[in-house]
Amino acid sequence: MAVQKLPLAKALNESLRKALETDPKVVVMGLDVGKLGGVFRITDGLQKDFGEDRVVDTPLAESGIVGTAIGLALRGYRPVVEIQFDGFVFPAYDQIVTQLAKMRARSLGTVKMPVVIRIPYGGGIGAVEHHSESPESLFAHVAGLKVVTPANSSDAYWMLQQAIQSDDPVIFFEPKRRYWDKGEVDTEAIPGELHKARVAREGTDLTLAAYGPMVKTCLEAAAAASEEGKSVEVLDLRSISPLDFDTIQASVEKTGRLVVVHEAPVFFGSGAEIAARITERCFYHLEAPVLRVGGYHAPYPPARLEEEYLPGLDRVLDAVDRSLAF
């Protein structure tokens, strides 16, 4: 059966299974990805079915994991690396930024780096310190890396397939608070472009642009706004680097207003680049300044306070009202 209703986590599992079946050069590796199946069970059952040489339990050493993946890519493999939690990626940041991102340019394009680094990211699960970060803008700022994030099960399945098939390194951010949200997945569909945004809900008065975990929140905000007679368009950006500015521009030229929403802190976040670029492109179409909604410029708080930190329905609707008031 081609169409199934799957939790986002299961869609990722099925995608990895398909990649392992299709290409013998695909290798999955990371902390506890084998026997345990990953802390979120994304790799559940894969080591049993494909063996310890294809699904590799690694030591607790993120720099070593990514460095090994770079070596495997140089030998023609397509490693898929799991970083167990977002805040654990920083020991590997040096390898990612100084080696993985630069290798293709350093070799004038002769060396390919088909490495996928999967990172569960964001808050909303009541975790402890270093388990709820949103570091996507740090990687989007680095030339040579592609940075993508799905918001639903279908994109989780297909975007991971496309990331694994890419000859460039891809940082694949997985919205962990949405792992258990179910959605339809057509495993025989022809996927759209990896770096193309999609219109998740059409509207005429204002555009909400989001990605990953905040797409669902923005759809809820658009539904709430419609009860007050406001027509809000919601864009699922899907790709953070490169960004599909053309789709954002087309939407803003229609609505005249833009609010960008992400969990990461607003200060120097990806929303700042979107706001600057759309202001340049759409200056004469804008009826209000581009507004941003996101986390605060502060360390991620203890779990009991994270609902105050994370942008929720009320903060998104407040920005909608402020924009429409201009």
From TrEMBL:
Keywords: Oxidoreductase, Thiamine pyrophosphate. The keyword Oxidoreductase applies. Its cofactor is thiamine diphosphate. Residues 6-181 form the Transketolase-like pyrimidine-binding domain. Coiled coil: none annotated. Pfam families: Transket_pyr, Transketolase_C. InterPro entries: THDP-binding, Transketo_C/PFOR_II, Transketolase-like_Pyr-bd, Transketolase_C. SUPFAM superfamilies: Thiamin diphosphate-binding fold (THDP-binding), TK C-terminal domain-like. It comes from the Bacteria. The keyword Secreted does not apply. PANTHER family: PYRUVATE DEHYDROGENASE E1 COMPONENT BETA SUBUNIT, PYRUVATE DEHYDROGENASE E1 COMPONENT SUBUNIT BETA. This is Alpha-ketoacid dehydrogenase subunit beta.
